[in-house]
TrEMBL record:
Residues 9-186 form the ABC-2 type transporter transmembrane domain. Its main location: membrane. This is ABC-2 type transport system permease protein. It comes from Paeniglutamicibacter kerguelensis. The lineage of its organism: Bacteria, Bacillati, Actinomycetota, Actinomycetes, Micrococcales. It is a multi-pass membrane protein.
Amino acid sequence: MNPTYVRIELFRQSRDIMNVMFAVFMPVAMYVLFGNMFGSGDTSAGNGNVKFYVMVSMAAYGSAVATTAIAGTAATESMLGWGRQIALTPMKASGFVAAKITVALVISAASAAAVYLTGMLTGAQADAAWIWALSYGTVVLGSGVFGLYGMAVGLAFKSETAIGIASSGLVFFAFFGNVFMPLSGVLLDIARFTPMYGFVGLARYPLTEGYGAGTDTVDSIGMLLANIVGWALVFAGLALWAVRRSRARR
């Protein structure tokens, strides 16, 4: 991975004020909306309260959206010729993917921090400080999986609509990943195989210890890890294939 490229990318992304505001303020607004929608935010839930549960869920979704959008800009760069310039450098495809994901994780960290700070100020509670720290770290690092997803979709479609397609897919993953509302029955059984289920389940694990909201089911940490690692390998393989295919055409 090239540190100079990462620094240039971070500077370039920070100049796109609209993207940064969307990545930071959209999940905050969703937390405020969902956290107060049912009027039971102060109810106890596992090792904290319902507001903490909603805060982690919205931070996870917002971070996934941020990393998908940042990494997905590879498609636009390719059309504008910046991708051709990068292809002429000695940087390998794996280094390019790693640099993009690093930049996406920095934006994800800012997005999740904004949601956690808002939660802290509006009544989200956990029984211990380590629950805050562990769930936040899981949200930030786990969102890297969706940076790989965004890059794979962006380069595979190679059009201005690629980011829109990736974002639409993310909404589908979130609904079937148990992010916005608790699922049960057959839908829950299917959800366990979808990309966002393991990610948000691990982020909530310090709070819920694997218990599902409104159900008696318990997810083991091994199953949640297997889900996120499996999908990370799938998206990483697709991203590398898309980068190499894009460079081979030049």
